[in-house]
Amino acid sequence: MAELTIQISDELAQRLKPLQNRLPELLWQLLDVANLPINSQPIVETETRDIPAVYQEVIDFLIKRPTPEEIIAFKVSAQAQKRLSELLEKNRSATLSSMELAELDVYEQLEHMMILLKSRAFKHD
Question: 49 CB contacts (<8 Å, ≥6 apart)?
Fold first, then answer.
């Protein structure tokens, strides 16, 4: 697990002190709200709420035991693709925050995994 150090005002530090143990959870929730339109935010069970939405999307697909053809044809939602485009554009213009960089890393890991899955599915097709 990474450790994050930030500089904040004394007033904000005092306000956050009672929430100190919940900060990682609250940051994930903030990311989810910032990345998703309010009406289309997926419902995620309590025990999986710390999983980024795009991970949940891929997990939901894989849990259905897709056929090799379905794996080959799989694409993340338009919403996830749009978010990835936004992150890539910010990366090109060197304006990514550290949280956005971590989010971009998640997309990169998932893309690598799906390439491997599609390659294996193609061999079995």
Answer: 25, 28, 29
d(CA 102, CA 35): 14
Does residue 108 lie within any of the structural domains? yes
Q: Which of 123, 109, 122 is nearest to 70 (CA)?
A: 122
Total-model pTM:
0.56
Percent of the chain with pLDDT over 70: 83
In a domain, 111, yes or no: yes
Flag whether 40 is in a domain.
no
% of the chain exceeding 90 in pLDDT: 44
Do the domain assignments include residue 113? yes
Give the angle 97-84-62 at the CA atoms, nearest 5°: 120
What mean pLDDT is predicted for residues 11-30? 78
